[in-house]
Amino acid sequence: MKESDKNFDYNSFEKEAIKKLRSGKGLTGEGGALTGLIGRILKAAYEEEIEDHVSQTKESKNRRNGSTSKNLKTSLGKIKVSPPRDRNGTFSPQIIKKWDRSIAPELEQQMLSLYAIGTSYADISEHFKKMYGVSYSPSFITTVTNKVLDEIEAWKSRPLEDIYAIIYLDAIHFKVRENRKVVTKAVYTVFGVNMEGERDVLGLYIGESEGARHWGRILENIRERGVEDAIFFCVDGLKGFKEVIESIYPRSHIQRCIVHMVRTSVKHVSWKDLRSVCKDLKKMYNRDDSESALAELERFDEKWGSAYPEIAEKWKANWTELSVSFDYPDVLRRATYTTNAVEALHRIMRKSTKTKGAFINDMALEKQLYLTLQYNKKSWQRKTRGWPAIIRVLKREFPDRIP
């Protein structure tokens, strides 16, 4: 048995802990039944460290020289400890470093997880005060969350795979303070599915309002990071999108999101006709091939052309981009005809930011979104449904491009 174990009065601690519990102090937090135990354990550890150090420096006639005092934040609450000193000033505690004020890395993880779900600094501070009896200032919480900034930079520049089966492109918008004004910023999301069917966020890029030119710079960035080919791109109806993608990935097939197209098509449809119009549009885009779908579009135009002529005209004008997935089996079509996968990712982002009025700068927005992704991986980082069937189709249709 170690000397520190012999010196520890277990009976005394047990009586003291029971007394605190009966008085309503609880197990943890300030004055909690277990909080004092940490102080006693640390005291015993300090004693062992200083005795070892002094015994190793006897030749210089070193000896103990009192102690200092400091408050330490732990996961059970705030405690007061007295690190010992030596006469030569060469003693440096290893269990709790000289300048450390916390022995609870799990507290930092809790802070990050609370921040990731959109909890404000004030609410995080209040949570820790209630749970552990310790107070953290907003500046301290900022320091903790800023520790991920280097991690974010590494994540943004990490190398990517050389080929992706599907890449979904879409943008989401947030309010950010800039030059004493609140402006709307676009967050460009690149969401990829690799050749094993695994989903990954290839990048988040903050820029001005969404535009094809900015998307071009983003695609150049992912190409520089190793993406040499993408078999399918799924995009919305942004003007110039197709041309930008083709300039960088000329072999890729570009499918315009049909769900987006339906939404814009029925934007000005009377509520009494809405259900019928949507039902007839569904008949068209659920056809097995492009020819029969186009024939169904003609029938739609005959029925609704007089009331809503712009709908069929819009579909016909964009038919080349809307009908790409019709050339492939249904299992592949379901994975490529819409950008719903990246929109589901955006819903996770909106959930964590819905309490925010405006972010103080781009860095704060980027930090929030990155942590949201990291702490919600189970919601979006999963294998694509029906992947064995999809990869069989891809290998059959694109044998020269799939390794």
Supply the helix-strand structural class.
alpha/beta
Question: Which whole number gives the mean pLDDT?
Answer: 83
The helicity comes to 40-55%
- Poorly predicted parts: 1-6
**Largest sheet composition:** 5 strands, mixed
Fraction of residues in β-strands: 15-25%
Give the N-terminus to C-terminus distance in angstroms: 62 Å
Strand order of the largest sheet: 7-6-5-8-9
Number of domains: 3
H-E order = HHHEEEEHHHHEEEHEHEHHHHHHHHHH
Overall form: elongated
Number of distinct beta strands: 9
How many DSSP helices? 19
Q: What is this structure, in a nutshell?
A:
This protein has 403 residues and is an alpha/beta fold.
Describe the structure.
This protein is of the alpha/beta class and 403 residues long. The chain has 3 domains: 1-101, no CATH class; 104-158; 162-397. The chain is 50% helix and 16% strand. The chain is built from 19 helices and 9 strands. The strands form 3 sheets. The chain has a 5-stranded mixed sheet with strand order 7-6-5-8-9, with helices on both faces. A two-stranded antiparallel sheet has the order 1-4. Helix 8 (212-224) runs parallel beside helix 9, helix 11 runs antiparallel to helix 12 and helix 16 (340-353) crosses helix 17. The chain starts with a helix and ends in a 6-residue tail after the last helix. Residues 1-6 have low confidence and may be disordered.
